[in-house]
Write the C-alpha cells for this entry.
Amino acid sequence: MKLFIDTGNLREIESLVPLGIIDGITTNPSLLAKESADPHALLKQICTTVRGPVSAEVVATDADGMVREGKELAGIDPYIVVKVPFTRDGVKACRRLVDEGIRVNVTLVFSPNQALMAAKVGASYVSPFVGRLDDISTAGMDLVKHIIEIFDNYEFPTEVLVASVRHPIHVVEAARLGADICTCPAAVIEAMFKHPLTDIGLEKFLKDWEKARQAAKV
Ligand code: G3P
C-alpha cells in the first residue's frame, strides 16, 4: 500500500520524505489555507520535494470553472493530480480533464455509488473519507471495503485512496482491505513508528553490549 501525507506543510514533508516511505501528498483548501505561502508556489515546492503524485484541489463549483482551475493547477508541475469534489459538476469536470490527459482525484466520496461514478468518468483516484463517516457513527472502512469489491468486479483502474485518516488503526485496516493508498496526517505517520517494546528492547541490547565491553576490559 502506498503512503501519502495529507498536508500542505513543507516542514512535515521534508521531515518524512527522507525516510523513504512516502509515495505522494494530498492537500485540500483547508490544509493550504493554514500555510502562509502562495498556494501555487507552495505546491511547486511540494512537487519538487516529493517526486510523486501531489493532489491539489479546485475551489470552483461549476464544471467550466473546475476545468479552468484544474488546467492551471496541472500546469504547475507534471506531478500535480487535480482534486475535484464529488458533485454533478465535479463528475462532468473530471471527464473533461481526463480527456485532456490530466489525472484527477475525486474527493469527498461518502458512498459506493459516488465511487462507481467517479471510476466511470476515468478518475485516477477516489478518496473515501473514513474519519468523517466514523464521526457520524457510520463505519468508514465498510465504504472502503465496498469500493474495493466493486472496482475489482469490473477491473476499474481507479485507485482507492483512503482519506480522512485519524489514527494508525485506520492505516492497518486500509492495508488489510487492500486499499491502494492511505493518506495520513504527519502525526499519524509519526505514531506508526512508536512501540514501547522496541524502545525497551533497544535500551536492553545497548546496555548488555556496554556491560560486556566493560567486562572484557577488566
Ligand atoms: O484531504 C482530505 C481528508 O483527508 C481530510 O481529512 O481529517 O479533515 O476529515 P479530515
Summary: The chain has a mean pLDDT of 98.
